[in-house]
Amino acid sequence: MIPEGNARPRPAGVTTAALALLLASAYLFALAALSAAGRAPLAWGAYLLEGLELRGPVIFVAAALASSAAGIGLLGQRNWARRLTCGLAAALMMGAVPAVSSAVIDFRFWTLLREGLKVVGGTAAWFYLTQPETRSAFVR
Fold first, then answer.
1. Is the pTM value of this prediction over 0.85?
2. CA–CA dist 108, 122 (Å, integer)
3. 89 vs 27: CA distance, rounded Å
4. What's the rounded Cα separation, in Å, for the pair 137 and 131?
């Protein structure tokens, strides 16, 4: 699929990242609505928001808007979306550092695995989106 005005097709990894961002966005939007209605606890967003969920449903909407903008922008091969996605991946990794450190000290394997997957996934996304081959697909 070649977008209009772009000579390069969209790489499969970019499509995968965009779909993951859009799924996270849908989850956060739904959780914002449910928590505002009192039907879901704020803690359900803790994995993605890393403590910011305590600020209430508004932060769920803000994070959902950021991830949906990044996902839609990636599908359109916008360079700003690639940069935004790298920033979101960095924020996800930084949020996982305290939990990973605590899990190592206390020898909690499952927490280390769960939080470590965020670090690995964020690093992989950031690394992939900064490669010259991938960057060349983003001309606008």
1. yes
2. 21
3. 17
4. 10
Comparing CA positions, the residue from 66, 69, 71 lying closest to residue 15 is 71
The confidence score (pLDDT) of residue 86 equals 97
Q: Name the maximum alpha-carbon separation found in the chain.
A: 53
| C-alpha–C-alpha distance, residues 30 and 15, integer Å | 22
Structure tokens at 88: 């979101």
41: left (phi > 0), else alpha (psi -120 to 50), else beta? Answer: beta
5-53 confidence digits (pLDDT tens): 556 789 999 999 999 999 999 999 999 999 999 999 999 999 999 888 9
Amino acid identity at 16: T
Q: List Cα–Cα distances, 38 to 7, 47, 53, 56, 64, in angstroms.
A: 48, 19, 14, 11, 19
d(CA 37, CA 55): 15
- Exposure string over 12-31, b if 16+ CB within 10 A, otherwise e: ebbeebbebbbebbebbbeb
